[in-house]
Amino acid sequence: MAQESPKNSAAEIPVTSNGEVDDSREHGFNRDLKHSLPSGLGLSETQITSHGFDNTKEGVIEAGAFQGSPAPPLPSVMSPSRVAASRLAQQGSDLIVPAGGQRTQTKSGPVILADEIKNPAMEKLELVRKWSLNTYKCTRQIISEKLGRGSRTVDLELEAQIDILRDNKKKYENILKLAQTLSTQLFQMVHTQRQLGDAFADLSLKSLELHEEFGYNADTQKLLAKNGETLLGAINFFIASVNTLVNKTIEDTLMTVKQYESARIEYDAYRTDLEELNLGPRDTNTLPKIEQSQHLFQAHKEKYDKMRNDVSVKLKFLEENKVKVLHNQLVLFHNAIAAYFAGNQKQLEQTLKQFHIKLKTPGVDAPSWLEEQ
């Protein structure tokens, strides 16, 4: 009798009502496999291959070498049923093998990433809160000082220098105002002298009997107008230099003084706050507040010390610059006034050359482009 084909022999294998192979050895293997799997073996280390029903290696699981905890060696090829392979695949999808070789159970669902970026609105709200608290403390300190209840930090030497600077600024502003008035009046006088000289010159040509007299007066008024224009140039240069000193150099120093005074108020406000906390009880609730207040006080103390040093340095440089500038400008003003009223035209022009002053007579039209060429 001829041998039957492998297909005929496979057709004689009994199956259950749902199409599963009724093999008691395979069911026993499923139980043994669950107990014999090493603790570190995951789905990434197991390869499941499926073939057709006519292949004898149905549902083959190939297990590779594992470096985890020691376990009894497994055969390189095992033949569980398709149901066992599907159950192992479902169980392996919920297993994660970390670097330590321990299995952790994970739950399926959406992954939520922590938002590490701060909300800009919350940052602005925090800045407003800090600003409001700082403003409240400083306002309370200012009111306490004006009412005579609060104490303030005073640097006697520095405060005296600041008071002198402010007083000098007022005096320099008064000199500047008077010099501007003098310049305006001198300009009007020079303009009148020029017009008067032109009138005398015109009458000298039209009045033959008074030709010489009108001519002398015309020359005198034109000379006075010319000297007045020279003096006006010196005074305007004096005004420009003093204006730069008062409204730029001194004003810049006073801005630093204002920042120093603001830093001093903040320093005293947080110093008073720390002193009040130190006078109170010390317990678990107040100790964190005292530590935070100490930190803020130290930060404002460093800012106050820095601003005090900045003011001291600026006052020193300002004093040196002020002496140098005012010395030159006062010498210029004196020599120009003295030469003008002495009628020494040569000395007056020499004074302007000494200070490199170029005359720009007010009221005179600018030269044309042909004259400039």
Automatic annotation (TrEMBL):
Residues 155-182 form a coiled coil. Keywords: Coiled coil, Golgi apparatus, Membrane, Phosphoprotein. The keyword Repressor does not apply. Its main location: Golgi. One of its GO terms (cellular component) is cytosol. This is ARF interacting protein 1. Residues 22-35 have a biased composition (Basic and acidic residues). It comes from Cercocebus atys (Sooty mangabey). The lineage of its organism: Eukaryota, Metazoa, Chordata, Craniata, Vertebrata. Residues 1-47 are annotated as: Disordered. GO terms for biological process: intracellular protein transport; negative regulation of retrograde transport, endosome to Golgi; regulation of Arp2/3 complex-mediated actin nucleation; regulation of protein secretion. One of its GO terms (molecular function) is phosphatidylinositol-4-phosphate binding. SMART domains: Arfaptin. It is found in: Golgi apparatus, trans-Golgi network membrane. Residues 153-353 form the AH domain. The gene is ARFIP1.
